[in-house]
Batch of 2 targets.
Target 1
Amino acid sequence: MTDRSTTARRTTPATDLRRRLRRYRADPRPLTARLADLYGHALYVVIVGGVLVSAANSGVDSTARAPGLVRWTVLVGALLAVALLCRAAIAVGPVLVSPAARTWLFSSPVDRRQLLVPRFAALLAAAAAVGAVVGGAVSLPSAAVGAPAGVFVAAVLVEAQASRRQTTWARRGIAAVVAGLAVFTAVLAAVPDLPWPSPAPVAPVAGAVLVLATAAAWHAHRALAAMTRSALSDGAEIAAVTATATTFLDPGLLTGTLVQRRARARGAVRSVRFAGGRRRALLRADLLRHARDPLGVLVFLGLLPVPYLAAHLTAPDGVAVVQLGCLFLVADRFARGLRLVSGSAALRRALGGSNAELRLTHLVLPATAALLWTLATPVVAVPHLALSVAGAVVAVHRAATAPPMRYDSPILDTPMGTVPIGLLARLFRGPGLLLLVAAVHLSL
Amino acid sequence: MDPRADAGSVRPVLYRGPVLDVRGLTKAYGDLTVLRDVSFAVRPGEAAAVVGPNGAGKSTLLHCVVGSAEADSGSVRLDGVEVRESDPAVRAAVAAVLDDVDFFPDLSVVEHLDLLAHAHGGGGVDEVLVELGLDGVVDQVPSTLSSGQRRRLALASCLVRPRRLLVLDEPEQRLDAAGRAWLAERLTAEKASGTAVLLATHDVELRHAVADRHVDLGA
């Protein structure tokens, strides 16, 4: 017969388990091969990052009337990126274990905090690096503030993960930050001469944030022991789908899962009954899904000031390209019904009618949203506006109606490695058309 | 004259042959032939049961019948016209629950059925909800239903719309004993109202209660 103390004595220490797991998962290749891989990845990030930064710099008008506006814009962009990163972190954890570890490892009486410490430490290190980069984007000394601020934010998110209620509050906080940034973008568009504050001494601020970050990290470390198995692995599905969607460059895989999860979280709704004929009912259903999940409306409103801001920063052809990108995002958010119907043969069979009729009916909402958004942002000449609306709507339609990925397509050997042609065809079906329209804008 | 001159109608006037006519159907996945020279016909008010062990090609046959899989040779005719999945007339005439069943994730149970009813000019949503015991979950979204309730919702999706041919892939799956008894009764009633039924099933009782003929893929 065993009592609780005997069981506790027999439990394998967490450090022992971690050592064993490391040994099982160890990469059998020599160190040089692993370092070569790491170098390849780092080089890829530097090259792609360099190209993006260079493209962004070349698009900014160096003779802008308000030099401070560029710095404000960079700050808003960086903060928006951080907010979206935090939202993604909440969706997957941020401390995440695989379903296998949840079932077999975390069901044992092992010290949960000890087992999670390496992941927690890696998360804080990554957050410090991101914070330093964001701070450095504003001004180089600000990196010293950004790093501890990143640690603070990550620690708060880990703390929130331990409690469903706090997770809800964290989600709301991030939504408030994004809304605040949208409002501030509108302010910048209206007042492009907003002065950039005079530089404050970095050291005291960095010191204060460091103290806060240390306290938050200590508190979050204590919260690790209270993490439930469900809190640790709820995001595993999202993480797995994100990985697949990234590998196959198919965001539709991720959005489908997110829609299912949101619906499941909602559980029940106040049902409505449809009236009128077939098309009226289909349109009403399409509207209904946006009334229940107003992300499309928020994106519509949030992006409104962006072309006005771009008009202060870049030449008219550049503004047209920015507007095209925004239009694509707006129309894409309203194309949920189109994606649903196009992606499911069973739903098309159930709804009846022809594929063309179903697609056109579900294109009404994205096209209307794009048109209204364009009417609200007439910052470039009419030919540019017309081209952007048509290009964005067609690109959204093509992306949403892409046929399923063909895994047996021929392989293309590129300097970056082998790529299935089917994958490229899918990728360029929507965004590729967008690039083409952008090129036309720049040549007009 | 095209027997389905009125493309949206589910009740052709002139055609008097079988609703479904399958001739010499052959389908292979690579080197694996799953259907070889399959032929059968189903007339209005008749039911045919597709039987065979797992992997015999029952689901593939049903997908060929609704046009969502393409046969290598042979023909599938609905009211005398070759079946194409994207043909609105086929979609208007065939109500199907196959292995790829799907629901609108963001609509409630009653909204899902109401939308399908409006899309086809059907109705009777409330009666179908009661008949299938779904009247207690009308406001829930499909992903919160149990697997048995989801199966009932899939069957309900076929009943709120007009149909000439009902194609069901193992409809008894995940139904409790009362649900299976209801299914046998309902399919018998469907036959009596003139609907042709094609079902793949492992349920011997259901087969005996409903089927007028068998398509044995294991033979």
Note: Residues 125 and 293 of chain A are 35 Å apart (CA to CA).
Target 2
Amino acid sequence: MSLLLKNVSLPLAHFTLEADFAMQRRVTAVFGPSGAGKTSLLDLIAGLRTPRSAFIQLDNDVLTDTAKKFSVATHRRGIGYVPQDLALFPHLSLRQNLLYGRKSGGTNNSQFAFDHVIEVLEIQPLIARGVTELSGGEKQRVALARALLSSPRLLLLDEPLASLDAPLKAKIIPYLALVRDEFQIPMLCVTHDRYVALALADEIVVLMNGKVMQTGPVSEVFARPANAEVAKFVGVETLQPGTVTSVNEGLATVTVGNVTLTALAPPPASRDVFVCIRGEEVTLQRDAVTASSVRNHLSARILSLRPEGALVRVELDAGFPLFALVTRPACAELALREGENITALIKAPAIHLVPR
Amino acid sequence: MTSAEWQIVGFTVWVAALSTVAILPFGLALAWALARGNWPGKSLVETFVTLPLVMPPVATGLILLTAFGKHGLGGLFDFRIVFTWRAVLLALSVMSLPLLVRSARTAFEEVNPRLEQIARTLGAGGWRVFFTITVPLAARGIVGGMLLAFARALGEFGATIMVAGNIQGKTQTISLAIFEDVQIGDDAHAYHLLGVSVVLAFIAVWSSEFFLRRKKTT
């Protein structure tokens, strides 16, 4: 599957959305702050908005080609869309909602058989209920199921977790991962939540103020932001694959390289994780620590020091690449120099584990 | 109530209902275009549709009389329009159209366009979206508007008398009959019909209130 966007230009209220990228992998996250034009981009792909110029191709089908004044109507694109507000039809029953996009006459892809979709998303217990009686997470699953039941070639998800609170988010991510794996359907997922991007996506497109700032595999974009703007938004300085070896009383022991860290336990059943540590959460200390509430004490070597405004970005080798952000006065006071050894302290709650 | 009075009531209700049904397709199309579209001349069309609501009804009637008379559009048809029941239908339709369009337009505007868009991504074409999403969600406003239009048609006087005359057993509606009864001093007849028209108007407006009342937002 491939989605190609070329010469996209769509004037919005404060800027013009411009995009030029190809999506090759199965799950691509369009990642950017609110108001970056992410939803407009999805609308464009679904054919719900008319761009000033665009060439959009899905596999071998051209969907939009403004140069030739060509555009496939939305209802013939075969693109499923789960919008941020989910848009369940309030006047229809839950079953009618689910079946709305069903094609009559057995042309449906057996992969999206009704019973199968219902089972995977655990809709059965909800089916007798009214659409307005569902909780946020349940609505999310119904909207997902409804989109899947129309046998789409591509699934667009707009901020799938935005309307949910934190505990529910943790419940919905596995469903999304399940949809990804079970239905083998390409997904384009818009999000401003880095954990969604990490948990679901193979590839990431960073969109800011209507411009694509960077595209690439998830770990690369997070580890090596193309510029300061992206780095600031992405926000995670250290991103390393790790393995959870044990979980005890809500605390996980996780191995990164040859180092063992203590972190808050990740969602259940995730062994392989991304270990995310923000630079400002890393404390540097000269002398060996005697007693401290901080769980993780790492001996590290300073590889480089890079001033960034009022801060200094310290690149460390702690058995794995680790970045710390410290203030300039702190850097001077500690007399940090490249090549020296230092102790890095990280509190357990400052280490975020994201399933990979 | 005499049989002549019942005939008048029956004719009035029938022709008012027919006019409401007749304006429905055009009225809904227009309301939808005004609610969703953004086209040149929109405000002009909007004004024209509302004119019969504020213009003197006899003036509207005169326009219709001129337009559909022998030397106007009426000359194009094999059948006569003016001074027949068809003229009553025409007058009632024109006079009640604004009420339907205004209610339906508001109702369409309140339908979240996102629902229509998502219906399209689910493979529904324009007509299917309109009839399965837009109209059901706007149903209360549409039905309320129809009842208001019907109520307006029941009581129409000025335009009707201009274009259809006041012909007993042919074009005479309740309003026209009351007017005539009072003119010739037959007050008993007038009061009978007055009672009927109060009851009919009350039922129509009261039920339209029920439909037009805002839905509780859940």
Note: Chain B touches chain A at residues 112, 114-115, 117-125, 132-133, 136-137, 218 (CB under 8 Å).
